[in-house]
Write a structure and sequence with these properties.
The structure holds 2 protein chains of 2 kinds. Chain A is an all-alpha fold. Chain A folds into 2 domains: about 1-85, Orthogonal Bundle (Rna Polymerase Sigma Factor, Chain: A), CATH 1.10.1740; about 95-165, Winged helix-like DNA-binding domain superfamily/Winged helix DNA-binding domain (Arc Repressor Mutant, subunit A, Orthogonal Bundle). Chain A is built from 8 helices and no strands. Chain A has helices at about 5-10, 15-25, 30-45, 55-80, 100-110, 115-125, 130-135, 145-160. In chain A, α2 crosses α3, α2 (about 15-25) packs antiparallel against α6 (about 115-125) and α3 crosses α4. The relative contact order of chain A is 0.12. Chain B is mainly α. Chain B has a two-stranded antiparallel ribbon with strand order 1-2. Chain B is elongated and about 105 Å long. Chain B has one domain (about 25-215). In chain B, α3 (about 65-90) runs antiparallel to α4 (about 100-140) and α4 packs antiparallel against α6 (about 170-215). Classes of the chains: A mainly alpha, B mainly alpha.
Chain lengths: ~160, ~220
C-alpha cells in the first residue's frame, strides 16, 4: 500500500474505521489488527470502487464486512479455548477513550448483536435510512423501527449498568 | 444517563485523542509469520511422507519377491531425502529477528533455491523410478505371475522379433524413448506436483511480498 494512497484516501476517513473497529473489538491489540486489516482490504479492493456510492459509504461497507468476517474467525478460534479460563490477552480494554460516557456507550454497543452494532453506528454517524440499508444490503422500510428498538435497548443497558 | 446516546457520541468524539489512527508499520508481521509457519508445516509433512514412501518401496520390493528392485527404489529416494534434510535445516536457520519483508524475501529465496535443486534431482528420479517400476513388474513372482519370463519368452521366440546386441530392439527403443521423455519432463512434472501441494500458499506468499514491495516504495 503506497503511503500516498493511505494519506489521501484512507486517513481522511480513518475516524469511520476507528469507530467501527472499536465496536467489534475488546482489546487495543485486536483493535489495531482490525484497523490494519480494514486498511489493507480497502487498498486491495480499491479498483472495485466504481463511484456507485460515496467513497465514505463504500469504506463503511467494506469496514463493516471486514469486521464481521474477523469477528466470525475469532469466534471460531475462541470455541477451541477453554471457556472457563479467561486468557490474559482477552482482558477487556474498557478505557479505549478518555471520555467516560463514550466508553460506557461503547461498552453497551458491544452487548448488541453484530448487525445491530453496525446499524446503530451508522445511525450515530448520521447516515440516512436509505444509506444504512444500502451499506447493510437490507430494505430501508424497517430500519427506523429497528433503530428505535436498538436505542431503547442501549438506554436500558446504560441505565442498568452505569446508573 | 443524563445525555442521549446521540450527544454522548458527538461530544465523545469531539475530543482530539478519541480518534487516533494506529500506525501501520507492523501491518504484515502476523501475516508473514502465519504464512511461513504454514509452509514449514507442509514441508515437514512432505519430508516425513517421502521417508515413509522410501521405506514402503523396500517393503513392497520384498513382498513382491524383487528385493533388489525394492532397494534400488529405496536408494532413489535417498538423494531426495538428504537434499530435503539439508534444506530443511537451512529453513529452520532463517533469522526470525529480520523485518517481515526481509524474512519473507529470505524465505522466498530459500524456496526458489530448493525448487531449483529438487527439479534437477527429479529429472533423474522420474525415469529411474519408472525403470525400476517396469523391472519390478517384469521380475515379480507375486502370485506366481512371472510376467517377465512369460513376456521375454514370447518376444524372443517370435521369429519377427528384431534382435540387436542380444536385445529386442523394437521393445527396447520405446522404453528408452519414454525414459528420455520422463527425464526431459521430470522438472515440469515436479513443478506440477509442487503447485498442487504448495500452490495456494506460494501464491499468497508472492502476493504478500508484492504488497510489501509496493508499501516500501
Amino acid at each position: 500500500m503506497s503511503s500516498d494512497f493511505y494519506t489521501s484516501s484512507i486517513l481522511p476517513f480513518a475516524s469511520i474505521i476507528i469507530k467501527l473497529c472499536r465496536a467489534y473489538t475488546d482489546t487495543q491489540e485486536d483493535f489495531e489488527d482490525y484497523y490494519q486489516e480494514v486498511c489493507l482490504q480497502i487498498w486491495r479492493s480499491k479498483d472495485n470502487y466504481r463511484g456507485q456510492c460515496e467513497w465514505s459509504t463504500w469504506i463503511y461497507r467494506l469496514s463493516l464486512n471486514v469486521c464481521l468476517t474477523l469477528l466470525k474467525k475469532k469466534k471460531k478460534l475462541r470455541r477451541h479455548l477453554d471457556s472457563e479460563k479467561t486468557p490474559e490477552n482477552l482482558v477487556v480494554d474498557s478505557l479505549a477513550f478518555k471520555d467516560e460516557n463514550l466508553n460506557q456507550l461503547y461498552s453497551a454497543i458491544k452487548q448488541l448483536s453484530e448487525v445491530d452494532r453496525g446499524v446503530i453506528m451508522l445511525y450515530l454517524e448520521e447516515k440516512s435510512y436509505q444509506e444504512i440499508a444500502e451499506i447493510l444490503g437490507t430494505n430501508s422500510n424497517n430500519i427506523g423501527v429497528r433503530i428505535n428498538r436498538i436505542k431503547e435497548r442501549l438506554k436500558k443497558i446504560l441505565n442498568e449498568k452505569f446508573n | 444517563m443524563k445525555n442521549s446516546i446521540e450527544s454522548i457520541w458527538k461530544e465523545g468524539f469531539l475530543k482530539n485523542d478519541a480518534l487516533v489512527a494506529p500506525k501501520l508499520n507492523d501491518l504484515y508481521n502476523q501475516k508473514s509469520i502465519h504464512i511461513i509457519d504454514r509452509f514449514k508445516r507442509m514441508f515437514r509433512i512432505n519430508y516425513t511422507y517421502v521417508i515413509g514412501l522410501a521405506f514402503l518401496h523396500l517393503i513392497i520390493g520384498w513382498i513382491a519377491g524383487v528385493p533388489l528392485i525394492g532397494i534400488f527404489q529405496f536408494l532413489l529416494f535417498i538423494p531426495l531425502i538428504l537434499y530435503s534434510k539439508n534444506y530443511r535445516q537451512k529453513m529452520e536457520k532463517i533469522d526470525k529477528s529480520l523485518s517481515s519483508f526481509e524474512y519473507l524475501k529470505t524465505f522466498d529465496n530459500w524456496l526458489k533455491e530448493t525448487t531449483v535443486g529438487l527439479t534437477k534431482i527429479y529429472r533423474f528420479f522420474y525415469p529411474l523410478y519408472f525403470l525400476g517400476l517396469i523391472l519390478g513388474i517384469l521380475y515379480t513372482n507375486f502370485f506366481e505371475l512371472f510376467i517377465g519370463d512369460t513376456l521375454i519368452n514370447k518376444i524372443m521366440s517370435n521369429p519377427d522379433t528384431k534382435i540387436l546386441f542380444g536385445l529386442p530392439i523394437y521393445w527396447v527403443i520405446p522404453i528408452v524413448l519414454l525414459l528420455a521423455l520422463l527425464s526431459f519432463l521430470g522438472g515440469s512434472i515436479y513443478k506440477v506436483d509442487l503447485k498442487a501441494v504448495y500452490g495456494p500458499t506460494m501464491n499468497k506468499l508472492e502476493e504478500l511480498i508484492s504488497d510489501m514491495e509496493e508499501l516500501r516504495k
